[in-house]
């Protein structure tokens, strides 16, 4: 009898805790993204919101704010805003969060990941777990991986198939010092600006070129602003992270934490498969619009690798030598 009473009391306490926890839930949670629903990035966020609402029977509602509008267009401030609780959740880029989480610069190391198998070997292995731990330690709980894709190079001036072709070109880059160092090593003139300012700058000729995944080039119609030369050099990939502020995460019951995480995992896998599957059609559409697409030979690729070695020398200590080696080993041992 005593044991039964104890079990009943424990069950009642659990129910009261769950009810109290849910009573603290917001009517709506903010979700920040850089790109809207027309892009795979925005679609990843859409899928997450849809799955959470469906699986929670409408108890947990999330609203997406794209174009970094919650941080006045400055995507590099997204992580800090989430850490402080000004933003509840995000589907964010490892690039944009790297100023606050140095380990995320791993993905920006030039030519680290030659193919999708290499990306997966890092994100789904020990290196990925170490990176998630680094994010969590800085005030944000990572839940799952998504993907923005390999970033390719476009410009309005010439065909680029060797480092010397970049000499003096003004290239728009995101707000990460590592990008500045990469393009400086290649002889270019990197110009930092937000995505909101990039297309106007390309239109006026303030910059000569930019680097982005093919999906972004296609949907944003970068070819319409004179970007008629595109080089597929796969110099880096841009994983996305589904995440939530630690402050907000701690307000959810364990059951709802599990729900949010699994929904993020499922949305991420859905988006990765979708974006990779659409790549051939995207490339064909870009070529059909008259864009010259250059594919590097192995020898040409190696020339770019050698030209950017100084970036590794400078940034490996900042990222963490153990983490970089862990990632390089994972890539070397990957299965195709």
Q: How do the strands and helices of this protein lay out in sequence?
A:
Blueprint: H1 2-23, E1 29-32, H2 40-55, E2 62-65, H3 78-83, E3 89-93, H4 94-97, H5 116-123, H6 126-137, E4 140-155, E5 170-173, H7 177-185, E6 189-192, H8 195-204, E7 209-213, H9 214-219, E8 229-245, H10 246-249, H11 254-277, H12 279-288, E9 292-295, H13 298-307, H14 309-319, H15 321-332
Parallel strand pairs: 1-2, 1-3, 5-6, 5-7, 8-9
Antiparallel strand pairs: 3-8, 4-7, 4-8
Helix pairs in contact: 2-11, 5-15
TL;DR?
α5 crosses α15. With 336 residues, the chain is an alpha/beta fold. It is globular.
Would you kindly provide a written description of the structure presented here, covering whatever features stand out?
Helices cover 49% and strands 19% of the residues. With 336 residues, it is α/β, with parallel strands linked by helices. Strands 1, 2, 3, 4, 5, 6, 7, 8 and 9 form a 9-stranded mixed sheet that branches. Helix 2 packs antiparallel against helix 11 and helix 5 packs across helix 15. The longest helix is centred in the last third of the chain and has 24 residues. The radius of gyration is 22 Å and the shape is globular.
